[in-house]
Design a protein that fits this description.
The chain has one domain: Orthogonal Bundle (Myeloperoxidase, subunit C). Helix content is 35%, strand content 8%. It has 18 helices and 14 strands. Helix 1 packs across helix 11. The longest helix has 28 residues.
Length: 517
């Protein structure tokens, strides 16, 4: 076998009896494309295919951010914040450097894998005993956004003189690197600010538990369980409900009425597709292909807050080093602090036209920022296509037929599973959500992970709901009640609990002060 030709096949054998960290949903399907191909030949083939996937060929991310016309022509209906929540979830359940937006594909990186559980280990790491530097008195250590003199910037109108509220940043070492459970969550400003919101939400829940009479040890455990379960609830009832075909989502996980003992039976609708024995594994059809639909949702540019300006659009990644963009890896300036009602549906989102900003459609195009990443390596579409080939993933059309679904029309030379999932979303749902094959792989995997996790709400207490949790309050879900009364606990609930600024007021006031103070 030539160097580079399927070097990690052993991590995902085709045997149905294999039970390890990675496995296959369709072990009997042949690999795509058929026939032998060297690594050099794959580079040529997938590079050409990747070039067809660029939204605006020849235009730089900075030029697109500055252009007034045709800026939103690729937008779908999903709020932009869910793009980065999807990345946050990915970093929680699998460690794969190639899923990063700014790192080169390294297939051998899959040797360093995450526990396939929705347990927020990207937040909690190995816990206070093994990583005590992440915590202080049961709470996460936090950083603050600072001005040019290194002084924390206080949020006007929030907190008191004795207990002020600062614009939050991740805790950082003297070199600006984030000190967090998963460094990948400092890859860009949006996901790093989401990480900060989750850290602050834990701290707020600890405070609520202490107010209710718990000691710090008990308060930490209660806060961690509540945050984990609320996060799992949001992943299933909010995020997946938005991105999956409704019939598939409803069938993938069903919680029945209480039995004689008061327990609620949990049924997996795709247990024959995603079948595991002692514990769940990570399907490569999910991690290497279907779940990478989020790469198509990334916009080239975003508006961040009023400190930068309501009409200022900044690239997520500019191609030039040192350019003004939203890449992470260092302290966050005030103008890049995320105003969350510009990214998520909240009561205050309706104050200005065009909010919340929308993710790009799920289709066969990726933003120019991903076509020329700042790390100087191959464009992300090529990395994804080549990685699927190295894993010997089947064609999307073969997967569709295996699921009993009529395949969508696709060029046989474009039938990589990842590209098929994007093509199907575009053909079946106009890019508003995933199609049947993509929805089935994603929903079956997440449902299986929840059911197989001994600490999830489904396993410990299927009757639990956020409304019944003593640490959660009615005001925490006020935005969701307005957006969807049947599923009111949404990602915006984390923002509410965290207490991070989300309305224009604090940002507008801060922007009007000298130096942003």
């Amino acid at each position: 076998m030539a160097h580079g030709d399927h070097p990690i096949e052993a991590l995902a054998p085709r045997s149905r009896m294999y039970q390890g960290p990675f496995g296959r949903l369709f072990p009997d399907l042949p690999a795509w494309p058929p026939g032998a191909m060297t690594d050099a030949q794959a580079d040529v083939r997938f590079s050409a295919l990747a070039r067809t996937m660029v939204e605006r060929p020849g235009r730089t991310p900075v030029a697109i951010a500055q252009a007034a016309k045709d800026r939103d022509s690729f937008d779908g209906t999903l709020p932009a914040g869910y793009t980065y929540f999807g990345q946050f979830v990915d970093h929680d359940i699998t460690f794969d450097p190639a899923s990063s937006l700014v790192r080169a594909n390294d297939p051998n990186g899959l040797l360093n894998f995450r526990t396939p559980r929705l347990d927020l280990d990207n937040l909690y790491g190995r816990g206070p005993v093994d990583q005590p530097y992440l915590f202080h008195r049961g709470r996460f250590v936090m950083g603050a956004i600072v001005n040019s003199r290194g002084k924390p910037i206080r949020v006007p109108g929030l907190g008191t003189a004795k207990d002020p509220v600062f614009f939050a940043d991740l805790p950082r070492n003297p070199h600006g690197r984030a000190i967090i459970g998963d460094p990948r969550n400092d890859e860009n400003v949006i996901v790093s600010q989401l990480q900060a919101a989750f850290l602050l939400a834990h701290n707020a829940l600890v405070d609520r538990a202490v107010e209710a009479g718990a000691n710090l040890g008990t308060a930490f455990e209660r806060a961690r369980r509540t945050l984990r379960w609320l996060y799992q609830w949001i992943v299933w009832h909010d995020y997946l409900r938005r991105i999956c075909e409704p019939a598939v989502w409803e069938n993938a996980l069903r919680i029945g009425a209480p039995d004689a003992t008061g327990r609620r039976p949990v049924t997996l609708g795709f247990k024959d597709l995603y079948a595991w024995k002692q514990q769940p594994f990570m399907p490569v059809e999910f991690s290497v292909a279907a779940y990478r639909f989020g790469h198509s949702m990334i916009r080239t540019e975003y508006r961040t807050n009023l400190a930068r300006g309501i009409d200022a659009h900044v690239p997520i990644f500019a191609s030039a080093a040192g350019a003004d963009d939203l890449r992470g890896g260092g302290p966050v300036p005030l103008e890049n602090a995320i105003e969350w009602d510009w990214f998520l549906p909240m009561e205050t989102s309706a104050g200005e036209a065009g909010f919340p900003q929308r993710a790009h459609r799920i289709d066969t195009k990726v933003s120019n920022s991903l076509a020329a990443l700042p790390d100087g390596n191959a464009p992300l579409p090529m990395r994804n296509l080549k990685r699927g080939w190295r894993f010997g993933l089947p064609s999307g059309s073969d997967v569709a037929r295996a699921l009993g679904v009529s395949p969508v029309a696709i060029d046989p030379d474009h039938d990589a599973l990842w590209l098929y999932v994007l093509t199907e979303a575009q053909a079946m749902a106009g890019g508003r959500r995933l199609g049947t094959v993509g929805s089935t792989i994603v929903a079956a995997t997440i449902a299986g992970l929840l059911k197989g996790d001994p600490g999830s709400w489904l396993t410990v207490d299927p009757a639990w709901t956020p409304d019944s949790d003593p640490l959660l309050r009615p005001r925490d879900n006020r935005d969701g009640r307005a957006d969807n009364p049947e599923h009111p606990w949404t990602l915006a609930s984390i923002i509410r609990i965290a207490g991070v600024p989300f309305s224009a007021g604090p940002f507008g006031t801060a922007a009007g002060l000298p130096g942003g103070e």
